[in-house]
Amino acid sequence: MNFFYVLNGKSLKQILLVVIAAFFTSWFLYMESIVHLPAFSAKDGPKAVYKGEKDLALTFNIGWGDVKAEPILDILKKEGVKSATFFLAGSWAERHPDLVAKIVKEGYEIGILGYDYEDYTELEEHKIRRDLAKAQEAFRKLNIKDIKLVRAPTGHFDQKTLKIAERMGYTVVHWSIDSKDWTNPGVEVIVENVSKAKKGDIVLLHASDSAKQTAKALPIILDDIKGKSLKLVTVSEMIANADTKTNEIK
After folding, report:
1. 247 occurs within a structural domain
2. FRET partner for 9 with CA separation of 20 to 30 A, picked from 26, 59, 104, 136?
3. Is the residue at 43 inside a domain?
4. pLDDT in tens, 54-93
5. Does any domain span residue 48?
6. What b/e readout covers 174-207, taking b as 16+ CB neighbours within 10 angstroms?
């Protein structure tokens, strides 16, 4: 027995719309799964720095723990590294004023890593402002003034974040080289990831307790940088001495 299906124009149009909708939904979910772009800027508006044109900037995020930060500071001092930028969570800084004082004493630059570890892209504007203001107050109480740099706590941010940071007098800083040390992939992998760094790059490292292998990898990383004759600078020095690069986000 043969069956015949008759589709009128209206039914065909409905099916086509369902297929198109399914395609775009799949595409959206796929794009959401892709790693965020390394940096963003609002068109003709505030920008996030992720790369310069010369020199190299090592940056260290610290959000929690009191074990790993000091050994990293000791290694930097032993290796004669005078310039590095530490992005500190305000809540961590309040709990570890002695370590913050040591970072300042060694002459390293401090940036804000928010106050709590929250994804700024998921927060309303007033909550982002409140988080940054709490961090700002924490550093003020530690007598650390004139901080100009901010890094989103989770590394995720959007145009909303950029505009709020700008209004509060901050520049958002991302990175162009991710060491992935926080995943503890092994010393060799961390070294290999950072070995891709070249002039103008901003390198992401961690000095939180979750990054258990960074201290072992750091001396090798520094030897590689010396071998490439790259000059280490703070992020602020990189911003001041070169044209930084940004990508647009809408």
Report:
1. no
2. 26
3. no
4. 999 999 999 999 999 999 999 999 999 999 999 999 999 9
5. no
6. bbbbbbbbbeeeebebbbebbbebeebbbbbbbb
